[in-house]
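In the current project phase, we have settled on a layout for protein records. One protein thus recorded is set out beneath this paragraph:
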Amino acid sequence: MGAVEDRLAELGLTLPEVVPPLAAYQPAVQSGPYVYTSGQLPMVEGKLPVTGKVGLEVTAEEAKELARTCALNALAAVKSVAGDLDRIARVVKVVGFVASAADFTGQPGVVNGASELLGEVLGDKGVHARSAVGVAVLPLDAPVEVEVQVELLPSTPWSSSPGDSAGLLP
C-alpha cells in the first residue's frame, strides 16, 4: 500500500472496487498526464444507500456524506487507470451534481463532502477548482453524482513525453 492508501486507512476508509458502468462508458480514462472519471454515484457494494431529491427525501447532511462516497468511488476509478494513487500530482477539478428539490440552494455545501474528503486524503494535492450544479434527476434516482479530474506524476523518472522519443528536450 502507498501513502495515499495508508492515509485512507488512517481515516477508517477502504478503497472500494470500481463501480461498474451503468451504460456505454468507462469509469475513468487517461489522456496524457490527466485522468478523467465518469460521474460517480454514491454506490456502496453495488447499491445506492439512499435515493431521492435533496431537500425532499434526502437531507443536505445525508447528501454531503453521499458526496464523500462518490469521491471515494472516484479515487477507485483513478487507481484503476493510474495503478497507484501516489501518482496523483493534484486534483484539478471536481464537478458535483445534486438532484435538488425546486427550492434547494445548498448544492455547494453538499459537494463539500467530496472536496473535503479529497483534502483529508490528499492534503494540498486535493485542492481543486469546482462546480456544484443542481439538477432535476440523476441516474437511478441518486441524490448526488461527482466527477473528478486529476493530474498524474510520471510513472517513472525516465518517462518521455509524447513526441520526445529520447525523453530529452531538443
Summary: The radius of gyration is 17 Å. The longest strand covers residues 88-99. The first helix runs from residue 3 to 10.
